[in-house]
Design goal:
By secondary structure, this protein is α/β, with parallel strands linked by helices. Helix content is about 35%, strand content about 20%. The protein has a domain at about 1-30 and about 80-120 and about 170-240: TPP-binding domain (Rossmann fold). The strands form two sheets. The protein has a six-stranded parallel β-sheet, sandwiched between helices. Strands 5-4-6 form a three-stranded antiparallel β-sheet, covered by helices on one side.
Amino acid sequence: MEGISQLKEWIGKSENIVFFGGAGVSTESDIPDFRGVDGLYHEQYKYPPETIISHSFYRKNPEEFYRFYCNKMLFPHAKPNKAHKALAKLEAMGKLKAVITQNIDGLHQAAGSRNVLELHGSVKRNYCTKCMKFYNLEEMLAAKGEGEVPRCSCGGIIKPDVVLYEESLNDSVMRRALSFISGADLLIVGGTSLTVYPAAGLIDYYNGNQMVLINKTVTPMDERADLVISGSIGEVLHDAV
């Protein structure tokens, strides 16, 4: 595939690599892209998906929120793919300093990556909105029962630690992401349309001249990249690392 040899050369010479990824990284683990042809935005529901996974809808109609969330946003049996594994290998080599992801599935950590910045939170973490008790995914599902809102032993609702529409991204995570990107000597951007802000705006802080975009479709940032590779993120990283 065109561009892989160049990427491999840059990886070999780089010591401060940062990866920024989106939904396309997880689609190869059979997790649907929100905006893909078979994604959530093309399903038929009583309410549009972007309405259901908003903070105001969660507050007003938690039963409908959790029905949708548990049926369409949780993939507990998904496994890391070649992309996740290649990035974990790069980190183990001491070259990759951070994975910055818009995904909420926890697959980077499952593959072995340790320094993962989750811009939109994680389905693996859940907490009681009343007493702040922590629940992992399995415990949250057990507390939910059949078609119910998951509740803590104190009676409070258990909320996923994910960023819903209308909610702000975590300032601390954003600052760390900005710091890693601004200091990188190689920035690899993969599996993202770069249309979701403010996350997509992070790449504006890259100061180097080795920004690589790996995606199956064209992005608004292609012209700004130093190298564009069209193809499977898993195959590209597997062959380059």
